[in-house]
Amino acid sequence: MRTRVCITIDTEFSIAGAFSDPALRPVAEPMVTCDVAGRSQGLDFLLATFQRHDIPATFFVEALNRQYFKHDPMAAIARRIHGQGHEVQLHVHPCWSVFRHADWRERVRACPRQDDFFGRDEADTLALIRQGMEAFSDWDLPPPQAFRAGNLQHDDALYQALARSGIRYSSNIGLAVFDSGDPRYALYGGRHERHGVIECPVLTYCDWRLGRRPHLKTLTIAGTSFAEMKTLLEQAHRIGLSLVVILSHPFEYIQSRDQDLRHARRHGIAQRRLTALCQYLDHNRDRYTPSGIAAAAIAVAPDHSVARDRPVAPDHSVAPGHPVAPSRSSSPENPLLEGRLLQSLDRLALQATYACYGQAALLATRGGSR
């Protein structure tokens, strides 16, 4: 069986500090195009790389930002991505909804946590989802089939709201980014049904251990080396995991010193990682099928195990070097994959060194593109 691999790109604008500093304003297109010396190192780099290696990707496009950006600049971006054959699915950051109110600054001061889905009322969550779906209609795009919550925040109410909205697939969980504490959502990877919605979590894995306790990390281009990705993909295929989901953002492919990204440089490490991953998937299609997330959720064989609504408790007592299966789950769809310590140490050292080098280069070049 081939493992489906979904590269997902959260495509979003930024509040850019506007909630805390009246002098600042949200940032739109630069968060997606990520221009350096007149060349897009974000969206254009992503689309060109995917085209070169024939990789279908999923762009989770944030749709509520038009509450602030009345000229709706995300519409053209979403249509362009769709026109290149990639899945365009719904991404929602609740924080943008506060801009509906003229007194939004007072509301933010009174309730700073504007971007939470966790703990939000189901009816309010459903209203936000439907606003996002309305944006897709206004953009002349097909209705979204899949959903991703901002900050990967999730709770039971979110899945109930998704079921009521008619969206059948989701990718809301990345346990190293956000853990709701609900054992029903302690999901490392694979496919899992919750309230009739098929959840496809961003893969969470163990990159190192303190004694027997694993350190959890969610699989991203920005935070995982290609060597680690290759190790995890080989392990996933070996144990028969049906689906691996990887997370990224356009702005991960540049380094910048400011929130509006006016002073930026190309992030060579991140770009090389994505290129190497796409080359690897392209050259190993006998083992992996690159796929959009809705296509993957639909295409996995009906008899393949899908863990349904049941508690999942992780077992952290298994020896290093082997996939860890949750102790109370019989599903092969929820193993905790294991990275290699030396690969993790190499990645940490390289990232720290490159971050320092990048900041020094930005100071020296004032916008150079090295």
Automatic annotation (TrEMBL):
Every NodB homology domain range: 43-169
Disordered: annotated span: 306-335
Native species: Duganella aceris
Gene3D superfamilies with a match to the protein in the record: Glycoside hydrolase/deacetylase (3.20.20.370)
Protein's name according to its UniProt entry: Polysaccharide deacetylase family protein
Segments forming a coiled coil: none
Classification via Pfam families: Polysacc_deac_1 (PF01522)
Organism superkingdom: Bacteria
